[in-house]
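User: My collaborator sent over this chain with a note saying "see what the structure looks like." That's all I know about it. Can you take a look?
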Amino acid sequence: MVGMAVTAMVAIGVVFSLTPSASGTEKEDLPPRKISVAPEYPGIVVAEGKDVTIDITVANGGRKDETIEITLPAVPQGWKAWIETYRYEITGVYVPSDDSKTITLKAEPDDNVRPGTYTMRIEGRTQDGELTSLSRLQITVKKKEEEKKSKGLAVETSYPVLQGPTDATFEFSLEVDNDSDKDTIFNLIAQGPENWDVSFKPAYEQKFISSLRIKANQTQTMAVEVRPHPLAEPGTYPIQVKVSSETAEAAKELKVVLTGTQKLEVGTLDELLSLRTLQGQAANMSIYVKNSGSATQDNVQFMSFKPENWRVEFRPERIDRLAPGDLKQVEVTITSAERALVGDYSVTLTVEGEKTTKDVELRVTVQASTVWGWLGIGIIVLVIAGLVSMFIRLGRR
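Assistant: Without extra context I'll predict from the sequence alone. Here is the result:
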């Protein structure tokens, strides 16, 4: 019985080994080599002056993995175009067998491009030049319509761009003019970057509102309060504000320019802020300086506030550049005055960045020199010896 079972298992294994796999069968059904490069939408319509962004599908329908070079052999005059991924501008893409990749074509018109139809050619070619795929993108530029001005409504601001650190609160002042002949309630809508907090407030008040009632032929001031996301990176961010009623609508674009947060951390690795030294002697300790903000700190300098005739030295004397998240170690040498009295003293170390300063207060304990201690012990011994000698002499008499 055992022999029959073994024979059956061997037979089954032979059958499976002789049966082609599904993936192998699928590969055999493919042609030896085949590529295709084509835009997702071969024809698009854009307004005058608008940029173009469109996906390009690069497909490998053959049995062999391919590296496909992508070029734009025909770019219309007045346009600038390139191929990129989410991070880089590219000239080629690797596509495994029976797979496809998506890349992005970007095109920018200059100021001289007028309404009309523009054709852009896209070419994909294998590295050995054996296979080529050609496609085209047709861009129809239409005349830009003039923005319709809302009758009876206007929104203005004297300061449409505000700049500051990421942890700041930005407040824009907007004037809404109801130039109609009746009192009107206007709805307020704002759209900012993701995870940002944008709110409307009456002028000089702290409550938040979502609508505004303005009497006929009058102007009212309101505030737009913007709080950036704590992790927002330095850059320029648009804020779209729309004021509307049943009969009129007006919009205004505001901008927040983030310079990043300016923060420094200073301390010791063991969290101890005290040390001991002898009169006139040097004591050493290490501190760390960390850029915990989102803005780079350049030319970080060190200063100290110390008792008279003391010396404080830093190595290095300054940090030329400290990127966000970077940490540097600094050696500090503190030398007390020669005639410093025994006791505790305060020494403040100041780390100064471009727009931020951090202080650390140290307690330095000055102890008497051991030489004076041994000298005192010697004097005491001599006094005792003299007294003993005197008692011996008097006792003999």
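A starting point for your reply to your collaborator: The CA atoms of residues 69 and 129 lie 9 Å apart.
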